[in-house]
Amino acid sequence: MFLDFFLLLKNDGIPVTIREYLTFLEALDKDVVEYSVDDFYYLSRTSLIKHEHHLDRFDVLFGYYFEGIEKIDMEEFMQIPEEWLKKSFDSHFTEEDKAMIKSMGGLDKLLERLKELMKTQKKKHEGGNKWIGTGGRSPFGSGGYNPEGIRMGHEGVGSRRAVKVWDEREFKDLDDGVELETRNMKMALRRLRILTREGTKEELDLDKTIDKTSRNAGLLELEMAAAKKNNVKVLLFLDIGGSMDDHIELCSRLFSAAKYEFKHLEHYYFHNCLYESVWKDNKRRKQEAVPTFEVLHTYNSDYKVIIVGDASMSPYEILYPNGSIEHSNDEAGIIWLERLRDQFPDIVWLNPVPVEEWRYTESIGMLREFMKDLMFPMTMGGLQQAIKALKDKKLKFEGH
Amino acid sequence: MKFKGTDNYISTRDLNLAVNASITLERPLIIKGEPGTGKTMLAFEVAEALKKEIITWHVKSSTTAQQGLYEYDAVSRLRDSQLGDEKVNDIANYIEKGKLWEAFESKKQVVLLIDEIDKADIEFPNDLLLELDKMEFYCYELQKTIKAKHRPIIIITSNNEKELPDAFLRRCFFHYITFPERETLRSIVKVHYPKLDSKLINNAMNVFYDLREVDGLKKKPSTSELIDWIKLLMVGKVTESELGDIDLSEKLPPYAGALLKNEQDHDLLTRIRLRFRR
């Protein structure tokens, strides 16, 4: 009875199990509902659906099954708005295309050439490989692809790998209110626990009590101990804005899980690469930047450091002074990263970019090497490995 | 014996059905929903309507599953053994029963409320799987199994602070209390303040719904805030005309503190007002 309906739900990604199906049948059998379609709908909902996120999809499927509305391909249907948001411009270029596009000389040369072009070009231009415009593969313009291109003021489309960004971007703080599917992440983060006893003594220490009582010739002597607490200290550095926008949901989940799991958690934001200052609140980053030196001096080496970032940027941003796309930095990003690594020996990097794509981005390879293969993909497996690596120095990530 | 809501508690048809299904099949019911939509209230009202006793177990971050079953007070037993107390020979004297034990042992069927289960440790629901499924557990100290005489009606509330494990959810019925529609809300207000002038309710509800629509509020006001606010309006003798033409872009309604509970939300409204003035 209603087996088709059950299978329909299951095939459309609602996590229903036989157990719930049997419960549902049992309820029908015991006449929980009288003969009314509404009640039948409510009953099937309360017994089969266990999460409010699935309610909407359930309604659609219920309607389809019991009224014979033509089935909409839910997969496609659910994805359309996301595709709109995702700015899937990347798909216009295949990976081979991307690999084919080679850089065109150094930074200075690029700037020079831009000035030249600005002089010569007066008309609006789109597509093509040479002029300033949108959608093309010239190193200048916006919405196109060239790993070392210069980004012209434009709404964020394209692959975002420009050397200088001239538009002021709006960044979003990561929302730690997200509670979607963070359970697995929390379970992974749990492994980092370091349990120590400290604080007021409120638990009976049985072993010691027995020992002391025996020594006391059988006269009771109680011995108390403090309860075990998780004392691991974690410093989280989060890359935010720009190319990280695509991964913001994943990062929010991680942040929310970490915030719950660690009592001693400090977090700082940076953009693309670590430089002389970081910030705690994105809205006030201009006013309330914290010098990186201060961070290095505040926290001792016990802290375990997790860097979250896509490490996708122009190599200048890592290697050269004044390479930052937002300001002029006196010292190169790599020097700051070295300082961080020197201060905190327990350090890992989580990268939300899928592993298969790592090799297409030069900067990822560079930072991976710098991290001595302690860069992990931000998947459940990667997270688990990264957490293990924080405790076990021998572990490395050796995919792709 | 079916639950249909009470005089003090307006419940929707789908909620009634979920409650009845869980009573008939003797499975726990998980209630989720926006804060202030009456999740905890539900258990009390079910108990009231079905004339049953209620046992409440409020879960805190330090609560463990074991505490719900029983605790063994070894310290007092040791102490008594020193004093040569007769009590010491029976370990049962040192077992402190938890809420679940209480509910299982009761001579009549009771309603057991496990409030805010998401506050506890992430493993907490898993530790209760067997207990809630079979409605029995084993007491090691006494070497006996405690089995429910009458399976209690179990209502569990969650605020979504943590996700509950699938294995746990599978054993329960689930209901999400949505924010009430205007008509339902009106009857809820009526239940609380039967003598109130309907125009005042109307205007108050307009302001309330306007406020709920402001984008970016950290905590949207919900039913319980509305009830409190209307009480303040009554105490403060605010007239319906004072509420009639409130434009949130110009000023805040009186006693706005009852509706908006954090300063960021107040800031947000102030900012919106400033923007309109420009």
Walk me through what this model shows:
The complex is a heterodimer of chains A (400) and B (278). Chain A has three domains: 2-174, no CATH class; 197-229, no CATH class; 231-391, Rossmann fold (3-Layer(aba) Sandwich), CATH 3.40.50. Chain A is 39% helix and 14% strand. Chain A contains 15 helices and twelve strands. In chain A, helix 14 (362-370) links the parallel strand 11 and strand 12 (375-377). Chain B is an alpha/beta fold and 278 residues long. Chain B is 44% helix and 14% strand. Chain B is built from 13 helices and nine strands. Chain B has helices spanning 13-25, 39-49, 65-69, 74-83, 99-105, 124-127, 129-134, 166-170, 182-192, 198-213, 223-235, 240-244, 263-277; strands spanning 29-33, 54-58, 70-72, 95-97, 111-115, 136-139, 144-147, 153-157, 173-177. In chain B, the strands form three sheets. Chain B has a five-stranded parallel beta sheet, sandwiched between helices. Chain A binds chain B through residues 15, 17, 19-20, 23, 26-27, 30, 32-33, 38-39, 42-43, 45-47, 49-52, 55, 179, 181-183, 186-187, 190, 204, 206, 209, 219-220, 222, 260, and chain B through 13-14, 17-18, 20-21, 24-25, 27, 30, 32, 74-75, 78-79, 81-82, 122, 160-163, 165-166, 169-176.
